[in-house]
Design goal:
alpha+beta, Nonspecific Lipid-transfer Protein, Chain A, 2 domains, four-stranded mixed beta sheet, 9 helices
Amino acid sequence: MPPAKKRARAYDSAKIRAAVLAQLGNVRDGVRTLSEDQSARPTHLDGWTVRDLAAHVTTVLETVSRSLEGPEPTARELSLLDWPFATAARAADIADDTRELAARNADLDALFARTEQRITERLATAPDGRLLAARTGTMTLADYLVTRTVELVVHTDDLNRAVPGLDIPYDRQALAACTRLLADALAVKAPGASTEVRIPPYAVVQCVEGPRHTRGTPPNVVETDPLTWIRLATGRTEWKTALDEAKVSASGERADLAGLLPLMG
């Protein structure tokens, strides 16, 4: 796991809390419309159906509720910028738990309703600095909720891609936080200032070792839209594919990010 030497940007806690609840609600509304045939469709996640993936979305916030109900850990293990690099090791456990959850919950809307009620109640009184025992390591509640925007946005996109016409909307604040955290993770993985990565309207970061840019147009520039960036950072889309489809532009000898992506497994 790369050391998080870059200082994490500040996030407005109230807006992040509202964003994760709003995006959970967006997914619930979308899942409510699924037919049996749509629920049984495969996703690009190996062995997961749409129904499995929808059930998994509830665990994104159920982990917060369970942690807040348990004893508080004594020390923080992860900073916010450590988190993207700590997720891959738990992928197998998450897949097994997800299939079990989907199998024992026939009514997905009821599952979403319980999750929504529990997380709303727990967040009403929990302070930002409260430590949570997450799967990836102990984090503050404020930091962990920012990571929930990544999980919610990524899986919203997964669901939309698996079911044509589903079109679950993205809460703007959730999409912004997700984009920014993954952009900052790139700057942690490849520290430097020779390449500027632009993801309008949410993020601009400098990364990659080399001559530092000081004024005018940077010699190495990468630009893409938020969803394409999120797919690249999480391995949903390959760098070459995004280039070939003109979803990303890259100019300069240090603008090839293929060897740095994905950031998350």
